[in-house]
Amino acid sequence: MFCDMEGTSGIADWKQVTFSDPASDQGRRLATLDLNAAVEGAVAGGASEVVAWDGHGNFPGALDPEILHPECSLIMNAAQEGPVGLSEDFDAAMLVGLHGMAGAKGGVLAHSFTRAVAGFWVNGVEMGEIGMNLLTAGAYGLPVIFLSGDLAAVREVKALVPDIESVSVKQGIEPYGTIVTSPAKARAAIRAGAERAMAGVATIKPYRLEPPYRMVTRWHTEEHARRDACRPGARLIDPRTVEAVVADLR
Question: Alpha helix (H) ranges present in the chain?
């Protein structure tokens, strides 16, 4: 399970996902309880082993191990380099607490990797963290069978994997504000959705694009672009846009 924080039920403000803010204590509890609901559903649907990767940040991370579901192992302090611990030994992946990409219409705390990114494309396909998680899982031959998050996240994943099981736990209101489902009701829906999703292990195909992967990042500022272009293999293609080409996502 790939876990993030912004798409968690009951979370509607950046304070809840910023570790330096006291409100993040509530955010971590909410995120862990959403994960626990997904674990319950996966186990009820036949999963024999569940491993979760905390993808929101290094320690303390989005997830509280003290209240973690006993059937779930947790990969902690490894959020900076994308999903960690993947192998072909797994049968499928699930996304829990995901959010829409930068600029997503009606997105709740929408962004792509960092709030400084204005847009991101792989081989011409615009995507955010959801798309990259799909691609990374696909590189290991794993289908992504479930997503929970806000309505923008659900729309985003459905555009890439139409048959995926998904649960929306909240909806952004333009120009601001969020309609939040009761976390208790959202967790019941997550549990049921994750259980249903287990049938997709045999039917949903891994999401793939043909390599090499041409990744284009549009930054909000020229300063961010210049810094990004210092990475090995990256180059500026205009003052705010950086291109990097990689052969493998593993």
Answer: 24-44, 129-139, 151-160, 183-197, 222-228
